[in-house]
Design goal:
- The chain has 118 residues and is an all-alpha fold.
- The chain has 6 helices and no strands.
- The longest helix is centred in the C-terminal third of the chain and has 17 residues.
């Protein structure tokens, strides 16, 4: 597996993506402008838009050129799901991300900890 496809590196990149672009709840991304088509949406994600925890993983994946496989994003999501289940009392990422008490700082730190295997 090339470093660009390392799911833990993708989680680190996702934490940076969210730190740069902001955190949202109840949606994957907030574009702020009309999206013309799927290609336009992908380009906007790669440039950076506010996102939820899962959206930041996808946004970082697009920013890195879609990596070399979809597997890195899938594996990163699985690692993050395991972290959420083991550390938050929630059973899935969206429920935890969307909870009123979950902050951007919480998500950024969790992405970093999941990347480090903490």
């Amino acid at each position: 597996m090339k470093n660009n496809d390392d799911p833990r590196e993708l989680l680190k990149a996702a934490s940076e993506y969210m730190a740069e672009n902001g955190h949202i709840k109840r949606a994957s991304f907030k574009y702020g402008v009309p999206v013309k088509d799927i290609t336009d949406a992908q380009e906007m994600r790669a440039k950076g838009v506010p996102s939820c925890a899962l959206g930041s993983i996808e946004g970082a994946w697009w920013r890195r050129g879609g990596c070399d496989s979809y597997m890195a994003m899938s594996e990163a999501t699985n690692i993050m799901t395991d972290w959420v289940r083991g550390n938050t009392g929630f059973t899935n990422i969206p429920s935890w991300n969307d909870h009123p008490d979950t902050t951007a700082e919480d998500v950024i730190l969790a992405l970093k900890r999941a990347a480090e295997g903490d």
